[in-house]
């Protein structure tokens, strides 16, 4: 027993990959138990949290690690969603293949946007990506593309029921949650390894000081384009899952507020922290539902009722920024350290 | 290391805590014949644009419907049951529509979805509602797509579809403006295109001198309006929402272009349009009289006119409005909401003492419902379309004045026939009689 206890941390610490793998498996088991325990509607929300977290995780790597800002990730999600919808409709591939191809297509778009983004800084970059968020979804209304993209009405995604081996009454929402959860865990696993690799170090170097990075032999533009591409790929996967879960791809599903809420999720959780992206996604997905439930049950007047979710949203954002300037993850870490110090003190 | 170690724990813990907290609020109906029905209540749901681009005007519809339900509840409800309408804000975003519809069906266990608003939003949940066998009644959109009884046995439209309306307007134009040049200004989506399809059935194509689309959201329509003005039409047909009816008129005014305007019902509510005209003009630093600008505008209606104060439906709706939602303007949207609320109550009564979802569908398919409409419904086992026609008229001193008799037709090649049956009077207490 003692021998194990002494040896375990050694193996543990030696291999980042192994450590992340163990956590991924534990995370998967936890996700599974949670999904089985929840009702179908909560499973739907779990699926939505998962795809939002995938996109937010990509964004937090971009903004938190390489220091680029993007207000256009909603548009990249639209690219993933439309790719998924079109591939499922015309190619009839398996969902897994469709999602991988949709991710690759969005990554391709990410290379183009990233190449432009690497030339821009600060507000100019924010402006350019903002234009992307506003402009790209309305391409669906462009008259030459309307036949293909379905115009304002968009596309309806038809996806099969869950496998029959799970039972005839198995809720489709749970099956969707599983698919999204699996994608989330894979994404977080890949990103967690990536940010601890040499590439991740280069990203941080570029964020801190571009000149110093260049002097140290880091190709600044290349790192920025690469980060943007990875981040776009995450948005694409998130968008593909959005299309699959909500069975739609339509311009109205990708308003500017989607891009902003992704950024909100990343900032609320703590920029650069993958765990933070998950917290943030939980908040931005569930908060509107909660506040509108409260508003509805409190029998408020129509104008208050309709706008209360926005007010609560704003208050939470202000609260978090004031209390935890580094995001929720920073707050959690602070509490965790305090708890650990207390426990250690007790043990001694 | 620290970051990733915490990551998975954090993921699981937050998700678990957050979702448990919300799981506590869920409830369901017990010991009753159908979901959402207890011995004293019937709970129905709806998705509405209370915020976002479609909110102006349309956000009044659900509160008006709720007001009518409250009015009937206060006099005892239907078969001893009170009606609760739970309407949620989807901000006209289809992703939200799907989530909220699933929330209403799975979480709130509503009996039916009634009056859900919008084509791009509601088309994404029709399959789901039909799979779950949830009655999807009186969709608030004129898309002809709701009328597919084989594919979607639980979905029913309500307002006349845009093709039907287009056909009747086209017929009116051909008869009253014979040989005149016509131009179309239309919203570039199903609404505008379906409307044009109907118009083209009756208007000679050689007389149509210009067809100009607009994208909702882009408020600069100068290019389209001047293209229409250059083609020198005598009549311009607008398949537009209220804001674009106003924008067209103001832009035409600047060009000194003053054709006869024929506007689809959707974009012609006199109170809304004249309000928008005055607002837009004020923003541009000018002052206009909205009422004067829409004087003589040709449009159509399928519900009694607000100006017809002797109509028993209008007096009933006004009474409910003044008592329950006095803060809303008494306009077309309010009448619309109350009228479909009345239709639902009628169907619920028809479904009997122990309503089930199937009984509601049967009651609608049996047909023969009459109510606030100027024309009959087309409901039968082979058609799930709502009002089967409209009455054309003109706007005079800010109110719609109907002309001739209401017309009915279908959305195919069927003929247009006048409907001469008298509209039934509203029940004295506003509650549908059994």
Care to describe what's here?
The complex is a heterodimer of chains A (348) and B (434). Helices cover 77% and strands 1% of the residues of chain A. Chain A has 15 helices and two strands. Chain A has helices spanning 2-14, 16-37, 40-65, 73-90, 95-117, 122-135, 146-149, 172-195, 198-208, 210-215, 220-246, 256-269, 274-297, 302-323, 328-347; strands at residues 155-156, 248-249. The radius of gyration of chain A is 21 Å and the shape is globular. With 434 residues, chain B is α/β, with parallel strands linked by helices. Chain B has two domains: 41-159 and 307-388, Response regulator (Rossmann fold); 163-301, Response regulator (Rossmann fold, 3-Layer(aba) Sandwich), CATH 3.40.50.2300. In chain B, α3 crosses α14, α7 packs parallel to α8 and α10 crosses α11 (270-283). Classes of the chains: A mainly alpha (348), B alpha/beta (434). The interface between A and B is large, with 66 and 52 residues.
Distance between the termini of chain B: 71 Å
Task: Please give the domain count of chain B.
Answer: 2
What does the average pLDDT of chain A come to? Answer: 86
CATH hierarchy, class of the largest domain in chain B = Alpha Beta
Beta-strand content bin of chain A: under 5%
- Structural class of chain A, please? mainly alpha
Secondary structure topology:
The complex is a heterodimer of chains A (348) and B (434).
Chain A: H1 2-14, H2 16-37, H3 40-65, H4 73-90, H5 95-117, H6 122-135, H7 146-149, E1 155-156, H8 172-195, H9 198-208, H10 210-215, H11 220-246, E2 248-249, H12 256-269, H13 274-297, H14 302-323, H15 328-347
Antiparallel strand pairs in A: 1-2
Chain B: H1 2-23, E1 41-48, H2 55-58, H3 61-74, E2 82-89, H4 94-107, E3 113-114, H5 119-122, H6 126-131, E4 136-139, E5 155-157, H7 162-176, E6 182-187, H8 190-202, E7 208-214, H9 222-230, E8 235-239, H10 242-254, E9 260-263, H11 270-283, H12 290-293, E10 298-301, H13 312-324, H14 332-350, H15 357-366, E11 389-396, E12 399-402, E13 407-408, E14 417-418
Parallel strand pairs in B: 1-2, 3-4, 4-5, 6-7, 6-8, 8-9
Antiparallel strand pairs in B: 10-11, 11-12, 11-13, 13-14
Helix pairs in contact in B: 3-13, 3-14, 7-8, 10-11
């Amino acid at each position: 027993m003692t021998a194990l206890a002494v040896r375990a941390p050694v193996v543990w610490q030696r291999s980042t990959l192994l450590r992340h793998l163990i956590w991924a498996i534990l995370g998967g088991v936890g996700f599974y138990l949670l999904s089985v325990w929840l009702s179908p509607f909560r499973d739907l929300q779990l699926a939505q949290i998962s795809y939002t977290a995938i996109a937010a995780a990509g964004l937090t790597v971009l903004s938190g690690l390489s220091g680029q800002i993007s207000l256009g990730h909603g548009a990249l999600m639209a690219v993933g969603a439309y790719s998924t919808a079109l591939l499922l409709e015309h190619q009839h591939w398996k969902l897994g293949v469709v999602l991988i191809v949709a991710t690759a297509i969005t990554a391709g778009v990410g290379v183009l946007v990233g190449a432009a983004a690497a030339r821009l800084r600060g507000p100019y970059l924010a402006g350019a990506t903002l234009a992307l968020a506003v402009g790209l979804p309305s391409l669906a209304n462009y008259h030459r593309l309307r036949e293909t993209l379905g115009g304002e009405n968009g596309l309806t995604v038809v996806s099969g029921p869950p496998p029959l081996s799970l039972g005839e009454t198995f809720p489709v929402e749970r099956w969707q949650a599983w698919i999204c959860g699996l994608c989330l865990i894979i994404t977080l696993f890949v990103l967690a390894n990536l940010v601890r690799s040499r590439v991740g170090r280069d990203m941080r170097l570029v964020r801190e000081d571009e000149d110093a990075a260049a002097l140290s032999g880091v190709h600044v533009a290349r790192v920025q384009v690469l980060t943007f591409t990875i981040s776009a790929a995450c948005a694409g996967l998130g968008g593909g899952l959005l299309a699959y879960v909500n069975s739609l791809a339509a311009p109205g599903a990708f308003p500017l507020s989607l891009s902003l809420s992704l950024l909100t999720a990343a900032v609320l959780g703590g920029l650069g922290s993958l765990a933070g992206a998950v917290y943030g996604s939980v908040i931005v997905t569930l908060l509107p539902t909660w506040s509108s439930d409260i508003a509805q049950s409190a029998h408020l007047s129509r104008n208050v009722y309709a706008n209360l979710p926005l007010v609560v949203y704003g208050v939470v954002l202000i609260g978090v920024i004031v209390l935890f300037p580094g995001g929720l993850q920073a707050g959690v870490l602070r509490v965790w350290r305090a708890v650990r110090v207390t426990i250690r003190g007790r043990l001694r | 290391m620290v970051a990733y170690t915490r990551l998975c724990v954090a993921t699981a813990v937050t998700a678990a805590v957050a979702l448990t907290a919300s799981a506590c609020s869920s409830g369901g109906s017990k010991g009753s014949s159908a979901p959402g029905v207890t011995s004293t209540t019937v709970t129905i749901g709806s998705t509405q644009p209370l915020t976002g681009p479609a909110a102006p005007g349309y956000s009044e519809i659900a509160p008006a419907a709720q007001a009518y339900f409250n009015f009937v509840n206060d006099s005892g409800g239907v078969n001893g049951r009170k009606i609760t309408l739970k309407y949620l804000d989807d901000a006209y975003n289809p992703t939200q529509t799907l989530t909220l519809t699933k929330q209403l069906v799975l979480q709130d266990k509503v009996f039916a979805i009634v009056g859900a608003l919008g084509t791009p939003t509601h088309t994404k949940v029709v399959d789901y509602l039909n799979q779950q066998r949830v009655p999807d009644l009186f969709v608030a959109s004129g898309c002809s797509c709701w009328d597919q009884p084989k594919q979607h046995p639980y979905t029913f439209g309500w307002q006349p579809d845009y093709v039907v309306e287009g056909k009747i307007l086209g017929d009116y134009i051909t008869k009253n403006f014979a040989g005149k040049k016509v131009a179309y200004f239309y919203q570039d989506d199903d609404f505008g295109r379906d409307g044009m399809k109907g118009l083209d059935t009756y208007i000679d194509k050689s007389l149509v001198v210009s067809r100009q689309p607009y994208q909702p959201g882009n408020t600069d329509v100068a290019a389209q309006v001047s293209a229409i003005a250059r083609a020198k039409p005598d009549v311009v047909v607008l398949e537009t929402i209220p804001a674009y009816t106003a924008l067209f008129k103001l832009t035409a005014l600047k060009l000194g272009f003053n054709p006869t305007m024929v506007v689809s019902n959707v974009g012609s509510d006199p109170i809304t349009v004249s309000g928008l005209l005055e607002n837009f003009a004020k923003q541009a630093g000018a002052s206009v009289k909205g009422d004067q600008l829409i004087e003589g505008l040709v449009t159509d209606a399928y519900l009694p006119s607000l100006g017809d104060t002797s109509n028993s439906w209008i007096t009933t709706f006004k009474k409910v409005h003044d008592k329950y939602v006095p803060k809303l303007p008494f306009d077309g949207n309010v009448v619309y909401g109350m009228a479909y609320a009345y239709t639902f109550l009628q169907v619920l009564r028809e479904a009997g003492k122990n309503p089930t979802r199937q009984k509601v569908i049967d009651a609608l398919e049996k047909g023969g419902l009459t109510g606030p409409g100027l024309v009959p419904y087309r409901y039968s086992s082979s058609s799930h379309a709502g009002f089967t026609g409209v009455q054309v008229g003109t706007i005079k001193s800010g109110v719609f004045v109907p002309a001739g008799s209401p017309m009915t037709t279908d959305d195919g090649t069927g003929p247009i026939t006048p409907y001469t049956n008298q509209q039934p009077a509203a029940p004295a207490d506003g509650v549908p009689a059994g």
